[in-house]
Amino acid sequence: MRPFRIYLLLLSAATLLAATTALPRAPLDETDLPALSAVLPHVAEIPQRARVLGYDRAEFGAGWAPSAGCTVREQMLLDAGADLLSCQVTTGTARDPYTGSVLDLAVDVEIDHILPLSAAWDLGAHRWTAAERVAFANDPRNLVVTSRGANQAKSDLLPAAWMPDDRRARCWYARRLAVVAATYSLPLPVTDKVSAQAACRMDEVTRVWLGWSVDF
C-alpha cells in the first residue's frame, strides 16, 4: 500500500476516534487552547512547591463573584448545559472531563480550580493584591465543572501527584493548567512540568506530524 494512502487511512481513523471520544467543550473555547509546547516555555520552573503559611479560601474572595445576575458558579453550570430557574439548576447533563462519566448538573457537581487556589498561594499568589486573587479564583480559564468525588480526589494537587482518571483528558488538563500558570506568571515545580509534558507527548507528536499550529 502506498505511503500516502496509509496516511489517509490513519487520518480517517484518527478523525473518527476524535469524533467519538472528544472531550466536551469547557467554558474556555477549546479551539483556542494552544499546544503545551507553545505554553510551557512561558512558565517559570522551580525546584519544588514550598508551603506558604496563611492560606485561607477567603483570601481569594468571599465565595463566587457575581455574574449575569447569579454567580460565576451558576454561569459555569449554564455553560456546561444546565437549565436554571432563579439561579438554581433544574435539569441538565454534561460529561465530566476528569472521569468521562455523565454528570447530572442538578446534583453532585462542583466547580474545580484547575490550578488550585492553595497551590497558587504557595506559588506566588500570597504576594498578590486581594483584587488579583479574586480575579484568579473566578477566571473561567481556571474553572471546570466536575463531580464532587473527582474534585475531592484532586484536592490541591498538581500534575505530578494527580491526573484525570480519563486518560483522554490528561493532555487537555495539562494544557489548561499551563495556560493559567503562564497567564498569571505562576511558576510550576519541575516534576509537574515533566508530568504535564508526559501527558501531552502523543498529542505533541500528532501535532508535529500533521503540521498543526502550536502558536501561543
TrEMBL record:
Keyword Hydrolase: yes
Pfam families: GmrSD_C (PF07510)
Domain GmrSD restriction endonucleases C-terminal: 96-156
A molecular function (GO) term: endonuclease activity
InterPro entries: GmrSD_C
Signal peptide: 1-18
Superkingdom per UniProt: Bacteria
Keywords: Endonuclease, Hydrolase, Nuclease, Signal
UniProt name for this protein: HNH endonuclease
Species this protein is from: Corynebacterium pollutisoli
